[in-house]
Design goal:
Radius of gyration: 34 Å
CATH topology of the largest domain: Aminopeptidase
Largest sheet: 6 strands, mixed
Number of domains: 2
Helix content: 40-55%
CATH architecture of the largest domain: 3-Layer(aba) Sandwich
CATH superfamily of the largest domain: Zn-dependent exopeptidases
Order of helices and strands: HHHEHHEHHEHEEEHEEH
Number of helices: 10
Distance between the termini: 94 Å
Oligomer: single chain
CATH class of the largest domain: Alpha Beta
Length: 307
């Protein structure tokens, strides 16, 4: 510490006590009170401004909703958010959570891992088994279900797609022959949660060769489509979709299959508008399957309008 600093400190220490006058104390007190009152008034003004702004925002929102679509406006906004989320998804979709209230269409997959050889082979190191059966944990039929759901939501049809991996869910207890038992629980759960579902689709791909599952439409290769229905009401529903295909896209549909070698009803007894759909085969590409899926989405939308 310098000598000059020590000198100043000694002067302060030895200086006499300062006693302000009563007038000074009174003036200081009055000044502080006036400043406090001004600060309080300013804070009150700011709070009033924000409250007024919030009220105006609520009023504008209510007017916008009531003038431009009401409840439908809200649903469209939610749909837009859902589409944005879907467009950012990666190749393997996460388990889709219900983003929409009261879905009209429900999509699921009893055979989750059914895949497509051309797209599997795009992944380096992919080994195809000797029997040439295409199954994959990553590139599989759930991508088709997701594509259909996104397309339907874009068209204004509230759609929910399930992509449960039953082998993963059941672990060591999984038996492929019980696939429809597992998926039946999925259908039952969603029907209980969403009783307003109008249509249910179990989406598969066929196992036939490419020449049996591919047709030309507008000079493009597209996957053929087939409808499998067992109960009479479900057959009627499947024929409605097939007839629309014949009208709009002749030659793309292989028709409606109404009997199988097994006694399996494919869970169709749970809803009169529940059918199994096969789009393409394992030698088709996802791009070819998506083209047919887009056709199907437009037809579903049209049929829902008629109900």
């Amino acid at each position: 510490m310098s000598d000059q600093t020590e000198k100043i400190l000694r002067m302060i220490k030895n200086s006499p006590e300062i006693y302000p006058s009563a007038d000074f104390i009174h003036a200081t007190k009055r000044d502080l009170i006036e400043r406090a009152l001004k600060l309080r008034k300013r804070q009150k003004t700011i709070r009033s401004f924000y409250a007024g702004f919030l009220s105006l925002a609520v009023l504008i929102t209510v007017l916008w909703i009531t003038s431009f679509g009401g409840k439908e406006g809200i649903l469209n906004s939610v749909d837009a958010g859902y589409r944005l989320f879907s467009s950012l998804a990666v190749d393997k979709p996460e388990v889709q959570k219900p983003l929409l209230q009261n879905p009209e269409v429900f999509i699921y997959h009893s055979h989750y891992e059914e895949s497509f050889l051309p797209d599997m082979l795009k992944t380096p190191g992919t080994v195809i088994p000797p029997n040439q059966q295409a199954y994959s944990k990553d590139i599989n039929i759930t991508l088709v279900g997701k594509h259909l759901a996104v397309k339907l939501n874009e068209l204004g049809v509230r759609t929910l797609a399930d992509n449960t991996d039953y082998e993963e869910e059941e672990k060591q207890k999984f038996e492929f022959s019980r696939s429809y038992d597992y998926s039946k629980e999925t259908v039952s759960k969603n029907l209980q949660q969403y009783p307003g579902i109008h249509m249910i689709f179990d989406i598969h791909r066929d196992s036939v060769h490419r020449e049996q599952s591919t047709v030309k439409w507008n000079n493009l290769d597209v996957a053929s489509i087939k409808f499998i229905a067992i109960p009479s009401e479900n057959i009627t529903f499947a024929k409605k979709i097939n007839n629309k295909f014949e009208e709009l896209y002749p030659g793309v549909s292989e028709g409606v299959v109404t009997s199988t070698e097994t006694k399996n009803t494919y869970n169709q007894e749970m809803h009169p508008h529940s059918i199994l759909i096969e789009i393409g085969g394992q030698e088709n590409s996802l791009e070819e399957v998506y083209r047919t899926t887009d056709m199907l989405a437009g037809i579903i939308k049209d049929l829902l309008k008629q109900e």
